[in-house]
Design brief:
17% strand
């Protein structure tokens, strides 16, 4: 069934996007009227994130989210067979000079983004949009066949998929400036290694990977914020961390990129992945004591060197 399912979806991906958007309307109707996909999860997370919302506002946001998710699903299907030219017509970087300048200096980067707007198109298009060699770190899917096929589709324009268990080898042996793409809003697998902060009005474990890689390998942190221009068209705004400062304190980089995402969610909440269970982990009893302990470990490991 895995093989039949994949090749069926792959064949559907050759349909024109306007036709696929027609399927999206049917999906939206299905989610709203017949099969309210993870509606309790979506509602509960919205209520916790926006405690001032009325029940009407929560319901309206759920409807807007289902519309966005329906369009995102068919766009992800289309991504399986989209050409490089089509992707570049529908996704562009507003300020490419940020990465171009870093590349000219021989500087690698940690490119942080999130499950906000169309991250699948970002993954596929990125190697043709920036000069760096692009790597993506992630855990493999449980279904090995789908994992292999999806990674083949994602990497068809030069994206390198790296297993989270073996990424150190790749980073240590980069012979040219590389960009490590990380979707940082995934709930951390190990909350004991996460950075805890207030995010959308609740204690949240933020994946520490982008900060750790940035400091461990002297990669410059750059956030890639995906904006939706209109249906099927997106732009990427690059935001660089202050690379000329003394090495930041524990959590500065994590709080920085989480803050950018939070601002984007507050402005356009329907574009975030609300159906993903974001708050699965219980916060430490004392966040302050936790930060003190982690700060001491952080100082012992990294000291006070500069980010160059």
């Amino acid at each position: 069934m895995s093989r039949i399912g994949f090749y069926t979806v792959y064949l559907i991906s050759f349909l024109p996007l306007p036709v696929l958007y027609g399927f999206a309307r049917l999906l939206e109707l299905l989610f709203n009227s017949v099969w309210p996909y993870r509606k309790n999860v979506i509602q509960n997370q919205i209520i916790k994130a926006f405690p001032d919302y009325t029940s009407k506002q929560v319901s309206q946001l759920v409807l807007r989210y289902y519309r966005h998710m329906s369009e995102l699903i068919v766009e992800s299907v289309k991504n399986l067979s989209m050409s490089k030219t089509s992707l570049r017509k529908r996704l562009h970087i507003e300020n490419p000079e940020i990465l171009n300048n870093l590349y000219s200096k021989g500087q690698s980067v940690v490119l942080v983004s999130a499950h906000y707007n169309n991250w699948e198109w970002l993954i596929s298009a990125l190697p043709s949009l920036i000069p760096h060699k692009v790597l993506g770190i992630g855990a493999p899917l449980r279904n090995s066949f789908w994992n292999k096929k999806l990674n083949m589709c994602r990497s068809r324009f030069g994206f390198h998929v790296v297993d989270s268990k073996s990424y150190k080898h790749y980073l240590q042996n980069c012979t040219s400036p590389c960009a490590v793409l990380m979707l940082s809003d995934q709930s951390p697998s190990n909350p004991d290694k996460a950075y805890w902060m207030r995010f959308l009005n609740q204690s949240t474990a933020i994946a520490f990977g982008p900060e750790l890689i940035s400091l461990e390998y002297s990669f410059v942190p750059v956030y890639a914020h995906i904006n939706k221009i209109k249906r099927g068209y997106y732009s990427i705004k690059l935001i660089s961390f202050n690379q000329n400062s003394v090495q930041p304190h524990y959590g500065d980089i994590s709080a920085w990129h989480a803050g950018i995402l939070q601002q984007g969610i507050i402005q356009n909440p329907q574009y975030w992945l609300w159906s993903h269970r974001r708050w699965k982990h219980k916060a430490p009893e004392s966040i302050t004591e936790w930060h003190m302990l982690q700060t001491e470990q952080f100082k012992k490991r990294f000291g006070r060197q500069k980010l160059d």
